[in-house]
Design goal:
By secondary structure, the chain is an alpha+beta fold. 34% of the residues lie in helices and 31% in strands. It has helices at residues 3-33, 54-68, 95-104, 111-120, 136-145, 147-150, 179-193, 236-249, 262-266, 294-308, 454-478, 483-498, and strands at 42-44, 47-48, 72-77, 80-85, 92-93, 126-128, 132-133, 158-162, 165-169, 174-177, 199-202, 205-208, 222-230, 252-254, 259-261, 277-282, 285-290, 311-314, 341-343, 350-357, 360-367, 375-387, 393-401, 405-409, 414-425, 428-440, 446-452. Strand 16 (277-282) and strand 17 form a beta hairpin.
């Protein structure tokens, strides 16, 4: 037998052996996996999912996670600690992926790797790690929500004013969370180090010096600007709104470079925030809304800001004229589309005092006066054009006697106007600067006009008299037994009407 033939026979023998081995391996693997269940001795974390279907394994992991979510994670920042339940951390557990990986043991890869995976399970367990993760946004949210519990925040020195005197509140040296580093630490710890038990994560913090100290406030004593308007003739609800809004701005400190949004300061406009329903402008009409009258607060402050010569960054006039300031001297706020904002463009902090007394609202802005003593300013309103309200808008009312007219909203004349700042040096006019231009819409008078005929009116009157007579008889019948209840209800109605 020649050499070439011998080699051929040898190769054939090897192929046969390899084929036999592969058949054996395949048979063994198929035998182990044919029932469609996870192979024995496979775990996800500490949960034995061997012999389970994928659905059963998912149920088992769900029970396991119910226990895990009751565990606690401690956030530690120096000497302060905040403990949070896992269920409140917003951690994502990838159960489906873990079950898929567990099911794939002995089923994925080539026949050789699958065979050895099945064989290895007879000697030792295969543990699939249940991955846990937290997003960057969620980790940052957790830190911000618990910032007060983790650190003492740095506080600038501030002022309070009582009985006409200032009191300086000292600064507080505190710490700040290093967010980028702390978020990364949280993500890595939860993904790679956490064993699904109680766990602690160290949060990175650093010292933060207050920017403004008590000594920086000693010069905040000068009146930079003040202005007052009258609201005493307003109804009860509007008066309360003006007073409530004023109280929310009173005591505000604005440090150099900071901007105040009046809308953010006084909103939301609802009963829970102390507001009542009162008249406000909407679509050319006066409607009842929570916070009606709040624009008098922003307008009064606007005029104090102008006299302080602070930088106005956002201001809008009303849609129609108001009667408590000259044209173009108003500042409306409405939703998020109209706000009054101004910036402290001085080199020292300012303090805003708001007062309401005797039907007057006043804002006074304190700071350090740096303007020349021989320089004074005044503001002048200039009317550019006037537009008439137009014809009355009449609405027929079948409940009123024919020809009777009831005015439901008075007419508003429209204007275009400008506000000018006039600067005087030693009492002589030196310069004029246009502050703003404003356009106010006109709005016609709205009237209800009666259409009820006299016969209909007579019939209605007779029916009304009859009902009143019947009601009087019924009242006499029950008067003795319901006196206390009637008195209580009467008091309630008085409150409702007044409100």
């Amino acid at each position: 037998m020649n050499q070439r033939k011998k080699i051929g026979i040898g190769i054939a023998a090897i192929v046969v052996v390899i084929a036999a081995i592969l058949v054996f391996m395949s048979t063994s693997v198929n035998s182990a996996t044919k029932n469609g269940r996870i192979l024995s001795n496979v775990f996800v974390d500490s949960v034995n999912v061997g012999g389970m279907s994928k659905e059963e394994a998912e149920d088992a992991l769900e029970d396991y996670l119910d226990t895990v979510e009751e565990k606690k994670i401690e956030l530690k920042a120096d000497q302060k600690t905040k403990t949070i339940a896992v269920k409140d951390m917003g951690i994502d557990f990838r159960e489906e992926k873990a079950v898929k990986e567990a099911y794939g043991v002995g089923r994925e890869g080539n026949i050789v790797s699958r065979y050895f995976a099945v064989r290895k399970l007879k000697k030792e367990a295969h543990v699939v790690k249940l991955q846990a993760s937290i997003t960057e946004a969620q980790a940052e949210k957790i830190l911000k929500n618990n910032e007060k519990a983790l650190i003492v925040k740095t506080q600038n020195a501030s002022l309070t004013r009582k009985n006409g005197k200032f009191k300086i509140i000292d600064e507080v040296e505190g710490k700040t969370i290093v967010y980028d580093k702390s978020v990364s630490t949280m993500q890595n710890a939860i993904a790679d180090q956490w064993d699904k038990d109680n766990f602690a994560i160290k949060i990175s913090v650093k010292k933060e010096e207050p920017k403004y100290k008590a000594e920086d406030l000693k010069d905040v004593t000068d009146v930079l600007g003040t202005y007052a308007t009258s609201y005493g003739s307003s109804g009860y609800s509007r008066c309360r709104n003006v007073e409530n809004g004023c109280s929310k701005i009173n005591g505000t400190m604005l440090y150099p470079g900071e901007t105040l949004s009046v809308y953010k300061k006084v909103s939301p406009f609802d009963a829970e925030n102390g507001y009542y329903k009162a008249g406000s402008y909407s679509g050319g009409e006066v409607v009842q809304t929570y916070g009606g009258g709040i624009c008098q607060v922003s307008t009064t402050l606007y005029n104090a800001v102008l006299r302080s010569e602070l930088k106005v960054t956002e201001r809008s006039n009303h849609s129609m004229v108001v009667n408590y300031v000259p044209l173009s001297a108003d500042a409306a706020i409405a939703g998020t589309h109209k706000d009054f904002k101004f910036k402290n463009n001085t080199k020292t902090p300012i303090y805003i005092e708001g007062e309401t007394s005797g039907g007057m609202i006043r804002f006074t802005i304190y700071g350090k006066e740096t303007r020349a003593k021989n320089r004074t300013i005044e503001f002048e309103s200039k009317t550019i054009s006037v537009s008439s309200p137009g014809k009355d808008i009449e609405t027929k009312d079948p409940t009123l006697a024919e020809g009777k007219r009831i005015v439901t909203q008075s007419a508003h004349t429209g204007y275009t106007a400008e506000l000018w700042k006039v600067i005087y040096i030693d009492g002589k006019e030196k310069e004029r600067i246009k502050v703003n231009s404003s356009h106010y819409n006109s709005s016609p008078q709205r009237v209800r006009v009666g259409t009820k005929k006299k016969e209909e009116e007579k019939k209605t009157t007779e029916e009304k008299d009859k009902n009143e007579q019947q009601g009087t008889t019924e009242q006499k019948t029950t008067e003795a037994t319901t006196a206390a209840t009637t008195a209580t209800q009467s008091n309630k109605n008085d409150n409702d009407t007044e409100e």
